[in-house]
Design a protein that fits this description.
The protein is an alpha+beta fold. The protein contains 5 helices and 14 strands. The chain is flat and about 55 Å long.
Length: about 290
Amino acid sequence: MGKWNRTLGIAVLAVAVVFGVSHGAASAFAGGRAEVRKQAEASMLVTGTIDIDTKGSVTAYRIEQADALPKAMLDIVDSRVRGWRFEPVLVDGEARPARAPMQLRLITRQDGDRYMLRIGGASFSTYDEDDTEAPRRRGGRLSPPKFPDLAVSNGVSGTVYLVARIGRDGSVEDAIAEQVNLRAIGTEKEMSQFRYLLAEETRRVALRHWKFDFPTTGPDADAPFVSVRVPVDFVFRGQQQEVPGKWIAYVPGPRQDVPWRNWDAAVQAPDAMLAGGLYPDRPKGPRLLTDLDG
């Protein structure tokens, strides 16, 4: 995890609003919130591109939602991104300049009267469901999980970052919630219970109902399984869904190990991806060699 940067006075309005944690929890969240509240984060996902030279250095990058960020935040992001080093991209065994898509999870946290900023995660790969080298949603959609009644009655919403292991017949052989972020504050015990509730409902639907078309070409065509990431939102009617360039507030859940994963996915953070999409679990983009946040 990278270091925090102090950003005195920036994004105070946006962050103060989202740190109110709208649609607050009901009576089940009556007390013991103080320590959990300290874990609350305001987060924004931004998208863009990044250019890499033959040595793996960053030559340029673009953030599509730059207008949504104060200059002080952009300066901090710039100092981090410019210092990144990637594994050179090889084409036919020769290093070539490359351009890759980029998604960054920017996170602010309140520290007294100050707000602190870090880059919490990144993704440098795309997912094209017309690509025969990638698993595709059979029928073009996945059955959504049901919003658990207990979560609804307690005003608890959030996002489950599910990783699904897909067998050759297209069924989900196994699934694990790699992370669950909640948009409500309670005691540690309550937060754990609601993370489990949302995660298990998502796993249940994935294991029983989700079907995929297995890759027919490429390196995974003969593999025993493939693995994908599927972020799933549980939000109330009228509640803001996450979109690039907008702040949201949540309490991040602990990151869980994926038992069948035999590759490094440390940089590609679970929550660096928007809900509603389907993403490769094994990163297909350039490999970052340095720490995200310096």
